[in-house]
Amino acid sequence: MDGAQRIALGSVAVGLVVLALKTAAFLLTGSVALYSDAAESIVNVAAAAAAFMAVRLAAAPPDRNHPYGHHKAEYVSAVVEGALIIVAAAAILHEAWDAFQNPRELALTPLGIGANVAASAINGLWCLVLFRKGRTLRSPALVADGRHLMTDVVSSAGVLAGVGAVAVTGLQWLDPALACLVAINVLWSGAVLVRSSVGGLMDEAAAPETLDRIREVIAVNADGAIEAHDLRTRNAGRLTFLDFHLVVPGDMRVSAAHDICDRIERALQDEDGDMVVTIHVEPDDKAKHAGIVVL
């Protein structure tokens, strides 16, 4: 089991602990706002389990049916997580509407509030782990899980503030109103998550700053060639696939052109060890006098 899988499995364990604490907080207080917090934690557990399965599948080596590997499984997980977030928001809105119609007396005990505070603190600390490890391991599933948990932390802070306002003012309608705001926030986070994941499934290009660095590395390390053009990139999980055409003098030996390609590939992989490079060599009559000029 690699690092990404261990972190993803850790998310499942953390999610179960947080769910237990938030459920206890709801049962002890009867607050629909705290119910909304617990409902989001159910999604967290399901999403963490989906992320673990996706990371595990993504780690599988290429095979006959998937010669480029299984890395896009992580994007599928993130889309599933976004869909689960939307389901959670619908459940929260349903419960909030019922609370509007049938106002409930809250029992805001220190034990109930303390359970929710403890759960939020655990989520906040785990968010930091997911962001750091997700970016280091270039795992969309872990980063998506971190973003989702960060939304949960923000929601929990708002819920606790609102429950405190109910205790101070005695206005019971503030509790379901706050739950509605949490649901809207959850829906927004789900939409953002699905959008970013669909981008990965649709083979979005590398970030502009990454493309600039790639062009610079090619220009510096293609000595002997004339130009490089038609550069394309796409991201698939932690991998970046890159291909381009390299124009060399028409009378250059194949072995010499191959040496240039090897040099470029080594330089690019020194820059990013998760880059898969494909170079198509062309003679000088194919030059477009555009793209990357060799320095």
UniProtKB/TrEMBL annotation:
Task: Indicate where this protein is primarily found.
Answer: membrane
Q: Which UniProt keywords apply?
A: Membrane, Transmembrane, Transmembrane helix, Transport
Mode of membrane association? Multi-pass membrane protein
Q: Which is a Gene Ontology cellular component entry for this protein?
A: plasma membrane
**Superkingdom of this protein's organism:** Bacteria
Q: Which GO terms describe its molecular function?
A: cadmium ion transmembrane transporter activity; ferrous iron transmembrane transporter activity; zinc efflux antiporter activity
Q: Where is the Cation efflux protein cytoplasmic domain?
A: 208-283
Gene3D superfamilies, sorted: Cation efflux protein transmembrane domain (1.20.1510.10), Cation efflux protein, cytoplasmic domain (3.30.70.1350)
Chain ranges of the Cation efflux protein transmembrane domain: 11-202
- One GO term (biological process): intracellular zinc ion homeostasis
> Transmembrane region positions?
12-35, 41-61, 73-93, 113-131
Localization recorded for this chain is: Membrane
Query: Which Pfam family is an annotated match for this chain, by its short name?
Result: Cation_efflux
Q: Which InterPro entries match?
A: Cation_efflux, Cation_efflux_CTD, Cation_efflux_CTD_sf, Cation_efflux_TM, Cation_efflux_TMD_sf, CDF_Transporter
Family membership noted in the UniProt record: Belongs to the cation diffusion facilitator (CDF) transporter (TC 2.A.4) family.
Q: What is this protein called?
A: Cation transporter
